[in-house]
UniProtKB/TrEMBL annotation:
Enzyme Commission number: 2.4.1.-
Subcellular localization, as worded in the UniProt entry: Membrane
Protein name as it appears in the record: Glycosyltransferase family 92 protein
Organism: Clupea harengus (Atlantic herring)
GO cellular component: cytoplasm; membrane
Amino acid sequence: MMQRKLALLVGIGALTILLMLKWEHVITLMNGETTSVQPWQRAPTDTITPIPGSRHLMVSAFKDHRLGGAIRVISIICRQELQPLYCVLCANAKADTTAKADANAKTDGALSQCTYLQAKVDVHTDDFGFPFVTSDVLCLSPMSQQFTRVSITTNPYDIHNLTFLSIQNQEVKDSFRYNFTVCISNLFGEYNNALQFAQTMEVYKLTGVQRVVIYNTSCGPDVEKILKYYRKEGILEVVPWPIDKFLTPSTGWKYDLHHGDIHYYGQLTTLNECIYRYMYQSKYLLLNDIDEIIMPYKHANLEKLMGTLQQQHPNAGVFRIENHIFPKTQFDDSGRFRLPRWRSVPGVNILEHVYREPERKYVYNPTKLLIDPRSVEQTSVHSTLKQFGPVLTVPFDVCRIIHVRVPLQGQLSKDQLFVDKKLWEFEELLIPSIDRALNQSGLL
Ligand SMILES: *[C@@H]1O[C@H](CO)[C@@H](O)[C@H](O)[C@H]1NC(C)=O
Ligand SMILES: *[C@@H]1O[C@H](CO)[C@@H](O)[C@H](O)[C@H]1NC(C)=O
Ligand SMILES: *[C@@H]1O[C@H](CO)[C@@H](O)[C@H](O)[C@H]1NC(C)=O
Ligand SMILES: *[C@@H]1O[C@H](CO)[C@@H](O)[C@H](O)[C@H]1NC(C)=O
């Protein structure tokens, strides 16, 4: 009797140890002659990496201090093929999170302590019907504080040649380099609307924007020149986004209509990436498209607008701003800003389009977002999916989006549209700064 009980206890003990080992197995990776296992670190210019043994992609990794230091790997998951995924987490004896610039840069000779555990995959609810969906692959390790690098894999027993992402946002910060940063989710195709882009950038600056981030898949030759100008000037970060090398991206928003692997060149992934990339760099983020301007109508700039809104709503971290269409087919009659020197620059002259479409009674007017990134966990395009505080819809007369584009209500004539010359108020500073940008980009 006693022997049987003992055998049972030993058996249970062994099983527990086995399960624990399977759950969090510690491996020591040695760089050098003694072992062939080497922790490869991704080059900083690489932003998309396949997850071995699957069609999934991993993008970047961040510590989430709001979730007790959990490690979030922003990923693109093929919904139909979701098998168990594992996090391989490494801590270095020597800090080596700075990779060398060459592709597939190898880390220095530091000893790496690595461990693995099964990941929790949180597939975002907004997929618009596409097979590849923005997801958070979460590594919930109680020891998460010590890790500096992570890789996701389908097979934790074969860790040869894994590509590691450095874990960003290691520290909480409460002062920020920028107050207002615009995240532009995607640039793709042969987009060459250079005049509108330069004008928009200069309007952003005058409203108080200090940083603009653009995810670049491809663009036309004149927009390329403008991008280089603003990058050199210092306001712009261009993040390479070669999604077309990995998937067939859709040029539209709905799978049934546009097909392809993923919504709008991965717009939802880049918006979420931008939130974490700038979480401790910017007090606020504006999540809008390249042809949209979030414009305060009752305050001189964004700083004053947010001062008022946060005073009224101290806990709100998500502010929804209504989008309003200014058709590019309707021109201001006076021709005041039809400047001959801009004629050779390709693109729309937003200062000529001062007619705004009315709201339609039974059509929902979509919003874009102005957020405190530290209060958002997941976002979609027009609303957040997971956030920590209250969400405020900002009244139209306080702040709205100026969106110059093809009309939505093309049948309306000028007298059925509203005249809205808000942009003209910036004339004195705006015109010379647009000239400077175009000239120094080599477009005048
Ligand atoms: C790792 O990659 C190197 C070079 O790409 C290759 O020669 C080697 O066989 C790979 N090792 C394993 C275990 O896959
Ligand atoms: C951000 O705003 C604060 C006031 O709210 C100001 O003191 C600070 O200088 C601003 N930072 C930048 C980078 O402009
Ligand atoms: C944008 O991406 C395209 C395609 O990779 C590249 O040719 C171009 O140089 C990039 N532009 C900038 C400013 O990074
Ligand atoms: C354009 O820039 C050059 C120097 O880069 C300057 O000499 C010239 O005056 C500028 N032209 C205009 C119209 O601003």
